[in-house]
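Hello Y.,

Per our agreement to keep a running log of every chain we model this quarter, I'm adding this entry. I've kept the format consistent with earlier entries: sequence first, then predicted structure.
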Amino acid sequence: MLPVIATLVLLLGVCPEALAASTRKHEFKQPKAYAVVIGISQYREEVIPKVPYAVKDAQAVAELLHTQGGIPKSHIRLLTDAKATGNDLRTLGDWLRLRVKPDSTVYVYYAGHGTPNPKTGEAYLVPWDGHPDFPSGLYPLKDLYGTLNDLPASDVIVWLDSCFSGAAGRSVLAKGARPMGMSLENPLLPGGKVIVLAAATGSQISSDYDKAEHGLFTHYLLAGLQGEADADKDRIVTLSELVPYVAEQVPHTAVEEFNREQTPTLFPALEELGHRTALPLARAVPPSQRPLLKVSEPKVEPPKAEPQKPEPRPQPTELTEAERALKELADRARSRQEAVRVEELERRAIESKRREHPVQPPPRPFPGDPRFRPRPPVPFPDR
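Predicted structure for the entry above:
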């Protein structure tokens, strides 16, 4: 078999080394990469609004990082709902620190609520058991950045499908607080190893996209990693390709579908990243193998028909004396007619029974019968 392949390669004029390199490139693997993927849809506190597609977002991102990102499944930690408590978020650095090597790439994805501190303007992630009224139970974004910067990894990529304005969408506020504009920048980011791609600016809303059943930002993040962002068609999606694609698609759809602005933001900017912009993220697949790109119109349920109320029955009115007397006469006449009819039916039944079973007269006794009594002779008068 090998000689045949070699002959074909020579006949086609393809360099064997280039073919092998191309094959290796299309078989994109990241055996030393690690990922923590978090999605919280239903919070423990029922007063916190549900994030409809956060768990589905996280599951899709984890699956894509394995199938197209080439990360082993054992290197991906998926935390959803009750598995994403405040303690789980605070200890994710310990889990990574035990595994990450100096040449590792780390991916962190979060879908859920964010919240601002109205007094300090600090941004928090809301764990499953957190509440915006109690900051001690929240996870500060600066702590996440600090933990990730302390890892012995070469690069750390953070994707945040959340917002921190408190206006609506994937953001909540403490009771009595008002929405506010804020910044996601952190002094640890410039010059650090952490690269953050956030779903929106600090004053905007991160939207859910019902047609795709994903967050709007996550939908285009997945689409880009699947191959829509592969601008040079080399079947590898890099950071420099993904960011412009997401930055173009999300604002356009936000305006067309929701009549509002949503601008994904990269920290640091691409111009400040230098050679790191060529960081490969995932293997592109053909369009026919991109199920996450399917967008359907939301199902519109027909309006429910209101149950028809039964018409009220007319209430009986009081009868005059004449009407009452007439009613009594009619009732008595009806009773007499019914009695006559009953008697007629009984008479007919008796006649029918007699016809079916006629009564025979007893036979007359004859001589020799004990019941026979001869008639006495009739005396004749003397003449």
